[in-house]
């Protein structure tokens, strides 16, 4: 090793060290909306430093393809960064897929470059890298497809599903173990990668829309862990740190999401998403509901002092967030206190509702989390539910036989008046009837969320 | 190799704990931008792909590496871009509402 070589090596390592620190700061600054944008800057500087430092590396002799690939990647990245806010869940899933694809491809290339001289530890982490990377790649593609509605959103289940998955996983792990002991057995490697790709598809097939927040978080965690494994293979501490940060972030979000759906943690960790859909209530006798027109709803709302709006995925589907903003403005102008109650799993990914409402210019100090707002419902004059269903179902509190029993919900039924904007009486994702709709204090507002809210806004404006 | 491995495990352990502590304090308000940001940071895997392509060890490795760089770079660029767009939208109330005065 020549002295200059050693010198530049140290410079690069110091650059990586600075980049790692910037990544940690970047996440730290995300703790509050006030500092969050500094966080992005820190992350960007860290990234530029790391990529720049890598280009200085001694072993790099060919820049042409690197530059071409960087330019192409940027060309794909820009439109992916400019998607509409309603498309953020599928964009996120797609980017998990891209991250995992990168890791899997690099792992595969490393294997073929190194075989048959792969030390046992390296082969173990390399297997982990391609197994996690492979299943995250196809799993995330499936999730993105479901969210984009190019794939059927209904869960697809069949008998022995878990057994098949377990069997496939065992074969992949067994092949990987054999490779650790006999790294010259090249022909097994495609098997490990191939099975992982299949497992990813099979894991996401049985998952329905309402479970997406948990699944996306879990895939996020897997993507991080596979990147950390790649860091072990390449002996890159920067990569280990970034992967560990991403992995723990996804892990924490998965735990929060699973708690909000009352799923056990092991249930989530192993991707065994117990299906709740099956038991659609049999006795569907037509119980009477009270409905109201936009005029009536507007009159009740403008007479209220405190209104809590509960948004759900239906608001996103109807693209009603801007009309909701107009409603917020109209009511605020009349002196009504309007707040928004956000359930952790409302929407299709963690924080989905917050982003949509922020996009519509609703101040974020009006967006209140479930635990904070639940105590206020008894003093709330009107709870207005827009496109949310299961997260407001009081059966989760009272009915032990309900599939969602025990799931924390927003206690909207304690408000003086409950209004529910809904297309019709069809049950929600979980196929469970919602007793909320039959309460005396509940008014059903049938119609498209965007049009109905627009109607209320017109009435409020007219009366002014 | 042996001591490298142990060092790497220590680094992983410490980074995971830092990750837990830091991310526990992220407001649920920002969970969506958090995910797109960690996604962009995770795309640091691009450095591995760059080395792979730059060292030009085999055509096979170069082809896989080029695809890997494209995938990861699109995450870096797209991830930072959308996180920034999202965070720009988060605004707090500028003027106090009348409702805050009429509170019982």
Q: How far apart are the termini of chain B?
A: 69 Å
- The dominant shape of chain B is flat
How many distinct helices of chain A? 17
Largest sheet of chain A: 6 strands, parallel
Arithmetic mean pLDDT of chain B: 87
**Assembly type of the shown chains?**
heterodimer
Number of domains of chain A: 3
Q: Could you state the order of secondary-structure elements of chain B as H and E?
A: HHHHH
The tally of beta strands of chain B, per DSSP, is 0
**Structural class by helix and strand composition of chain A:** alpha/beta
Indicate the mean pLDDT of chain A: 88
Radius of gyration of chain B: 21 Å
Fraction of residues in helix of chain A: 55-70%
**Class of secondary structure makeup of chain B:** mainly alpha
First and last CA, distance of chain A: 82 Å
What spatial order of strands do you see in the largest sheet of chain A? 3-2-1-4-5-6
User: How much of the residues of chain A is beta strand, in percent?
Assistant: 5-15%
Number of strands of chain A: 6
Range of helix content of chain B: over 70%
CA-based shape of chain A = elongated
Task: Please supply descriptive tags for the structure shown above.
heterodimer, A: 464 residues, alpha/beta, Rossmann fold, 3 domains, six-stranded parallel beta sheet, 17 helices, 58% helix, 7% strand, elongated, B: 104 residues, mainly alpha, 78% helix, disordered C terminus
């Amino acid at each position: 090793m020549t002295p200059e070589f050693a010198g530049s090596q140290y410079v690069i390592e110091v650059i990586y060290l600075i980049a790692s620190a910037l990544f940690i700061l970047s996440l730290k600054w995300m703790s509050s909306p006030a500092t969050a944008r500094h966080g992005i800057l820190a992350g960007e500087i860290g990234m530029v430093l790391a990529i720049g430092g890598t280009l200085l590396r001694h072993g790099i002799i060919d820049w042409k393809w690197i530059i071409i690939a960087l330019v192409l990647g940027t060309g794909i990245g820009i439109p992916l960064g400019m998607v509409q806010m309603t498309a953020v869940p599928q964009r996120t899933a797609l980017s998990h897929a891209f991250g995992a694809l990168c890791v899997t491809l690099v792992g595969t290339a490393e294997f073929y470059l190194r075989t048959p001289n792969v030390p046992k530890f390296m082969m173990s982490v390399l297997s982990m890298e391609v197994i996690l990377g492979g299943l995250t790649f196809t799993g995330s593609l499936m999730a993105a497809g479901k969210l984009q509605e190019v794939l059927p959103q209904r869960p697809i289940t069949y008998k022995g599903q878990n057994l098949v998955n377990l069997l496939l996983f065992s074969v992949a792990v067994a092949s990987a173990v054999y490779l650790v002991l006999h790294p010259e057995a090249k022909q097994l490697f495609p098997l490990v990668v191939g099975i992982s790709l299949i497992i990813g598809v099979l894991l996401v097939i049985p998952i329905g829309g309402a479970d997406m927040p948990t699944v996306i978080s879990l895939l996020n965690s897997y993507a991080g862990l596979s990147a950390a494994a790649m860091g072990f293979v390449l002996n890159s501490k920067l990569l280990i740190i970034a992967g560990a940060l991403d992995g723990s972030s996804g892990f924490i979000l998965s735990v929060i999401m699973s708690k909000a759906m009352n799923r056990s943690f092991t249930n989530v960790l192993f991707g065994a998403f117990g299906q709740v859909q099956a038991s659609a209530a049999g006795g569907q006798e037509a119980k009477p509901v009270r409905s109201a027109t936009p005029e009536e709803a507007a009159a009740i709302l403008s007479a209220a002092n405190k209104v809590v709006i509960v948004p759900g995925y239906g608001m996103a589907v109807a693209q009603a967030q801007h009309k909701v903003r107009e409603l917020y403005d109209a009511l605020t102008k009349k002196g009504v206190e309007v707040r928004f109650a956000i359930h952790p799993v409302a929407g299709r990914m963690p924080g989905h509702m917050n982003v949509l409402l922020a996009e519509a210019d609703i101040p974020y100090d009006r967006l209140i989390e479930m635990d904070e707002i639940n105590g206020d419902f008894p003093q709330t004059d009107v709870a207005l539910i827009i496109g949310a269903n299961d997260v407001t179902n009081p059966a989760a509190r009272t009915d032990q036989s309900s599939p969602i029993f025990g799931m924390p919900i927003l206690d909207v039924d304690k408000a003086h008046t409950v209004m529910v904007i809904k297309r019709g009486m069809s049950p929600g994702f979980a196929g469970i009837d919602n007793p909320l709709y039959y309460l005396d204090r509940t008014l059903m507002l049938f119609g498209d969320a965007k049009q109905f809210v627009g109607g209320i806004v017109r009435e409020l404006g007219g009366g002014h | 190799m042996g001591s490298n491995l142990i060092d790497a495990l220590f680094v992983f352990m410490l980074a995971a704990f830092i990750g837990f502590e830091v991310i526990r304090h992220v407001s649920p308000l920002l969970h969506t931008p958090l995910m797109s940001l960690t996604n962009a940071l995770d795309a640091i895997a691009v450095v591995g792909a760059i080395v792979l392509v730059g060292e030009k060890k085999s055509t096979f490795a170069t082809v896989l590496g080029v695809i890997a760089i494209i995938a990861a770079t699109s995450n870096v660029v797209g991830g930072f871009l959308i996180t920034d767009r999202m965070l720009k939208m988060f605004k707090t109330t500028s003027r106090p509402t009348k409702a805050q005065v009429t509170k019982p």
